[in-house]
From TrEMBL:
Pfam families: GKRP-like_C, GKRP_SIS_2, GKRP_SIS_N. Coiled coil: none annotated. Keywords: Carbohydrate metabolism. SUPFAM superfamilies: SIS domain (SSF53697). InterPro entries: GKRP_SIS_2, Glucokinase_regulatory_CS, MURQ/GCKR, SIS_dom, SIS_dom_sf. The lineage of its organism: Eukaryota, Metazoa, Chordata, Craniata, Vertebrata. PROSITE patterns: GCKR, SIS. This is SIS domain-containing protein. Residues 88-281, 318-496 form the SIS domain.
Amino acid sequence: MATVAKTEGIKAFSATHDWESADYEPTLPVSEMSNPLTRNIDRAPASSIVKMLQACDAQMFQEKSGAAYERLLSDQVAKSLMEVAKRVQLILKNPQDSLIVLSGCGTSGRLAFFITSGFNRELRRLNHSAVCSYIIAGGDRALFSSQEATEDDPISGALSLKKVSEGKKRVLFIGISCGLSAPFVAGQLDFCLQHPDVYTPVLVGFNPTHQARNEPIPGCTFTFHSVVTKMRELAKMQKAFLINPVLGPEAISGSSRMKGGSATKILLEVVFSAAHAANFSRTPITYNGILQHMRSYGKVLDITYSQTEGIAALMEAAGRSLQCGRGLCYLSWGFLGLLGLIDASECKPTFGADYKDIQGFVGGGCKELGSKEGDLNLMGAESGIAHIDFLHNVLPCLTDKDTVLLLYSHSDDVDEVAKLARRVREKTSNMHAVYHQTDGDTAAQQGEINKLCSSTLNFIWPQATPASMGLQHMWELSTKLVLNAVSTGAHILKGKVYQNYMIDLQVTNSKLYCRATCLLQRLSGHPKSLCEEALLKAIYQVDKLTEDIMTCNLTTHTHTARKVKKVVPLALVCLLTGYSIKEAQSHLEQKPIVREAVEACLREQTLFSGSL
Ligand code: F1P
């Protein structure tokens, strides 16, 4: 009986629904749902993968009248953005004793850093004091390597906010949590609510507020949900702000680095650009201006995805490298490079990748990027990130099996690009480029670089950029979309995705632990308790859970999980076959492509249930 229920569960689950209907995956928040558009992404060729990603990204800009949820272009979202932009403008006008803080975990923290750096750079260029600061859970080392555990620590969140804003009289705090879920951010928002005389909290995330995470946070009297509920009350008096449009489920379920990251960048850039224009060029902050700016980001999607074939070719090249155990390297200059570093660092928690699978390198490394804590190489980042590190550590061993991707624009030092390209070409012919230029501007060396590369995605942007939107922001979003597509697609081609689930995710914090348990439930059809048991057995590599293990807290579980590879596939094989951990391990070794191993088990199960 149990086996029949299992297969029925799987069948029901693969039917295609509209994700907005009330009965679609009713226990999950939108940010964790599986997207019906990508259900077969694991079996699709590269060009179809790109088209699916395009369709998913387009959901961000859908304007649906009478839709159940707020969307990116909804009235309420535009109004909240206007209000927050006005608060930013006030701080620009009177920066003394004031501060804007952007904070988040994982990708959200990396984007907090990215946006803060860009905004402060622009202010310094105008001889204005830098008014913006960032916090990332886990500190600067989390900028380029995955440090998912601190995400669970609300106290560390509150303390880091207290520290960064010491002595300030007015602080606009912008907390980012795509899933409205990170305890680190909840702790910071709660801290703001305790000190309303100084702090105005803003929350950016992509679920409706009733779906904010409501699990108890150890040692706290609040949950993310209770904090959001309080903020909703305060929002009525504009003492707090909620910016939470729904974007539709991610292409790979729960992979908030994709749409979640893009929307974070869009929303905050719109806010900061509007405030900047109001303060420095006396352009009033208007509803229409905000909407128009948001829409112009929609055009970036169109321009980027107009090169489907080129993106697919890159994806295939990168997929081939990963399939044979070799790597993909992003070589870049300036701030486009930061996006390469961010994209590379996310592959570890998302796909259980090794840091060498996808690596990013940018000109002068950390110094060039202006992180707070200085040289990350000295702080234990997994490997250096400057070009010099690439030349020492990677170039000598490069072969045609590795893929190298140059990311540059015509405003970079193209001489330098050509120089490095020549050196790489001596070692591998598998070099490609993503190049941004404006209509009419070409760099002299571009022809030579093109010849050295086996493919170039050349994006030519119109000169007449909408005044509100910097070209740089367009290039950045476009680069992010391309890199997300390439790294996601390459891992799909490597077999790291089952249907549209990241089957080999790392289980390094409470959100990922819950995601893993939920995935096991869906794929095995077994009850939650059994799935959690299997997960723990895989984490601790035992066939029987001891009293000791059972009494450990979640932090110990997720800490231990850091050291084990293929935790979720292991638990799933055990659940489906009844194998011991050792047997399941050897099964996975025989079938190193995780998707195939999982499929083989599911097939066996179905056959077995059929013969009953
Ligand atoms: C933060 C985050 C993600 C990361 C992983 C774990 O999520 O660190 O960036 O990819 O999924 O969670 P959120 O708080 O922005 O939802």
